[in-house]
Specification:
The chain is of the alpha+beta class. It has three helices and six strands.
Length: about 140
C-alpha cells in the first residue's frame, strides 16, 4: 500500500500516512495513535432485570466505576434499545440494552477486555458489546 509523507518534528521530520483509500483500521490507528484524537468507548449493557433493585444496582455500580476511572461518562438509560441476534442454535434472541459512553485519550485494549469480561459475568451475559471509535472533539481547542 503506497503511503504519503508528512512533515512531523517527532519522527525526523517525516510520518508515514496511509492513503485515503487504505483500510479503515489503518486510517483509524493513524488518527488515534499519531494525531492524539480522542477515543469514544461505547458499551451496550443489558437491562433485563434492571427494573428490579438488583438490576438498577448493577447499572449504578458500572456507571460509578467508569465515572471514577474516566472522570465522567454518558449513559442513555431512558429508552432502552432493542437488540436482536441469532444464537448458535438458530434461535432469535433479544435483549433490551442501554448505551454507556466514555471518552478518553487512550484505549487500553487489555484493560477493556478484562472489564468487558467482568461486566459479562456481572450481567449474566456471554459477552458485552464494546466498541472503540476514534473521534475528534470539536469543543477542544
Amino acid at each position: 500500500m503506497p503511503t504519503r509523507k508528512r512533515n512531523d518534528s517527532s519522527n525526523n521530520g517525516l510520518t508515514l500516512i496511509p492513503p485515503r483509500d487504505a483500510p479503515l483500521r489503518a486510517r483509524c490507528q493513524r488518527k488515534v495513535f499519531q494525531e492524539a484524537i480522542m477515543v469514544l468507548i461505547q458499551l451496550l449493557l443489558p437491562t433485563s432485570g434492571a427494573a428490579s433493585a438488583d438490576g438498577q444496582a448493577l447499572l449504578a455500580r458500572t456507571r460509578r466505576e467508569l465515572a471514577e476511572r474516566f472522570t465522567g461518562l454518558t449513559a442513555y438509560v431512558r429508552s432502552p434499545a432493542k437488540g436482536l441476534w441469532t444464537a448458535p442454535d438458530g434461535q432469535i434472541e433479544h435483549d433490551d440494552v442501554v448505551m454507556v459512553e466514555v471518552v478518553t485519550e487512550t484505549f487500553d485494549r487489555a484493560w477493556w477486555r478484562t472489564y468487558a469480561a467482568t461486566l459479562a459475568e456481572r450481567f449474566g451475559q456471554e459477552s458485552i458489546h464494546l466498541r472503540a471509535v476514534p473521534v475528534e472533539l470539536l469543543d477542544e481547542g
